[in-house]
Every structure is written in structure tokens, then in C-alpha cells.
Amino acid sequence: MTSKDIQLEIRGEQQHIAVIRLTRPAKRNALSDGLMLAIRDTFENLPSSVRAAVIDGEGEHFCAGLDLSELQERDAGQGLHHSRMWHDALERVQYGPVPVIAALHGAVVGGGLELASACHIRVADESTFYALPEGSRGIFVGGGGAVRIPRLIGAARMADMMLTGRVYNAQDGERIGFAQYLVPQGQAFDKAYELADRVAQNAPLTNYALMHALPRIAEQPADQGFLTEAMMAAIAQSAPEAKDRVRAFLEGRAAKVQKG
């Protein structure tokens, strides 16, 4: 699947990894409405063989945020519906069919940071930098950033970024929680693909629980979270694939955890 804004490639011997690449390098992969709709449609229509996805940006930058050339004067109702369209698109990333690993490099700014925060694992290379310039431009985040970004770094750090224009480099970004992995420049995609290949080997129901149940459990009061956890654990372990994997471990046919 190819369009002017996004490219989908299915890789792996079992066609189990989707590589989704933003293809607007001349615009630093800035997010137009067309690109957001293409992201939504891509995740809605992934082939059934896919078990994990990598999202990447063509060129020197992952994504430099909202395409300001598309910024229009809207009344409050139009602005509300526009923001909700972005929410809908990024909901397909976070709560879609498969785990998503972001390969970050260069600018991860504004809407680009909102997109990255909707992914489940983020790998940054040393060229990566993070910013939320909306505050200096008289606008506010509208793609779910006010919900997702504080869950990564805390509300105070996000407010500081928007109030002062603070930019985090790759090292500090990993330290505060923007990325789980930091690799040398030019290696983010390879590391993200390696992780996607590993994730794709998991039992699908376990991956589903981690994507859909875990973030909701984290938001629930403890007593509700314990009950949700118990129900999800019961469902996951009842799957035939889970039973086969436990049996393989007990019979010595599965690798044990080793010190990293």
C-alpha cells in the first residue's frame, strides 16, 4: 500500500511485521489532515498476518508536527471536530490490532510527539530531539498529547515545555521517559525492527492484553484494577497457544530467562 503521504510494507518470512513510513520528507513529515487519515486507514486495514508494526519517518526527521500551512481559521465547533478526528486516528495506533514500535530520529515535535506517544515502544537515535512549540504559537495540543504525554513524563514537565519552549535532546528525552531505548544515530529503525520481530513472537492474546488492558488497569482504582487483571490473566492463560508454551517450558523445550 503506497500513497503520497505514507507507505506500508509487509516484511518477514511470515509477513508478520508491518513497516509504516511517513513519506513527506520535504515537509519534515509534518502531519497534514491527509496524512492523519492515511495513518488511521492503514492501521484499520492491516493484513491479518501482521503481529507487530514499526512506524518510521523518511528523511532526516521522524515528524516535525502539525503542517502549519494547513492551519485554518475555525470556529470552536470546527476546531473540536478537527481535534477529534486526530484523536480517532491516533486511537487506531494505540488501541489497534498490534503493538507499534516507533523509530525516532531528528525532530519529534508537536504532533509528531503526539504520534510517538500513541506507540507502545519508542526507540530514539542520538539525533532525536523533542519539543512542544504550540505554546509559543498561540495554540494548544489537539491530538491527544494532553492525555498521553503527561503519562510519559508528568504534567509539570509537559507544562514547562509548552510554557518555555524547552527542547529535550535524545539523552535527556530517554532519561525522562520519552523513549525506552537510545541507540547510535542511524540505528533507530534497525533496533525498532528487531524489537517488532521479538514482539511478533508473543502469544497474540498476551500482546492484546498489554495494549488494551494494561493502560486501562493503570488508570483504575486498585480494587478494580486487580479484578480486571484477574479476568485478563484467566482469559490469556486459557488460550491454546498459552497452554502449549507453558507445557514447552515445563518439559524443558523453552529457553529460560537469562541475565541481560
Strand content: 15-25%
Helix content estimate: 40-55%
Shape: globular
What class do helices, strands and sheet pairing give? alpha/beta
Order of helices and strands: EEHEHEEHEEHHEHEHHHH
Q: What is the alpha-carbon Rg in Å? A: 19 Å
Quick rundown:
It is built from ten helices and nine strands. With about 260 residues, the chain is an alpha/beta fold.
Defining traits:
2-enoyl-CoA Hydratase, Chain A, domain 1, globular, 15% strand, 46% helix, 2 domains, 260 residues, three-stranded mixed sheet, Lyase 2-enoyl-coa Hydratase, Chain  A, domain 2
Give structural notes.
This protein is α/β, with parallel strands linked by helices and 260 residues long. The protein folds into two domains: 6-199, Alpha-Beta Complex (2-enoyl-CoA Hydratase, Chain A, domain 1), CATH 3.90.226.10; 204-250, Lyase 2-enoyl-coa Hydratase, Chain  A, domain 2. It is 46% helix and 15% strand. The strands form two sheets. The protein has a six-stranded mixed beta sheet, sandwiched between helices. Strands 5-7-8 form a three-stranded mixed beta sheet. The model has no long low-confidence stretch (mean pLDDT 92).
